[in-house]
Amino acid sequence: MMGVTLTESAARHVASFITKRGKGVGLRLGVRTTGCSGLAYKLEFADAVNPEDHVFESHSVKVLIDPKSLPYLDGTELDFAREGLNEGFKFNNPNVKDACGCGESFNV
């Protein structure tokens, strides 16, 4: 198992958001079934670590992943990028075999 990592830029963004929120233990990352290709990423700020969570730490920021999502996300690097007027998280996931044109869903 390789786990999930954050780039420095993503970690900085998450840390500053948690500070602004005033609470939170890290970022919860998962997948859900949806869209044209089958799976979509789910991202939310976590206020607690669940007993079954896998916890990875990158640049002092915790990433929590439920056991069902981990096989789809193992080895993923999460980046935070600014492209033109858009900014957002970008998933560099080595498991993806096929992604849909809209970039919202993928399969492995």
Describe, in plain words, how this protein is organized in 3D.
It is built from two helices and nine strands. With 108 residues, the protein is an alpha/beta fold. The strands form three sheets. The chain has a four-stranded mixed beta sheet with strand order 3-2-5-4. A three-stranded mixed beta sheet has the order 1-6-7. The protein is globular and about 35 Å long.
Structure characteristics:
globular, 2 helices, 3-stranded mixed sheet, 108 residues, alpha/beta, 9 strands, 4-stranded mixed sheet
Q: What is the count of DSSP helices, taking H or I runs of 4+ residues?
A: 2
The count of strands amounts to 9
Q: Could you give the distance between the termini?
A: 16 Å
Topology pattern, helix = H, strand = E: EHEEEEHEEEE
Question: In terms of topology, how is this protein built?
Answer:
Elements: E1 5-6, H1 8-21, E2 26-34, E3 38-46, E4 54-58, E5 61-65, H2 70-73, E6 77-83, E7 86-92, E8 98-99, E9 106-107
Parallel strand pairs: 1-6, 2-5
Antiparallel strand pairs: 2-3, 4-5, 6-7, 8-9
Brief account:
With 108 residues, this protein is an alpha/beta fold.
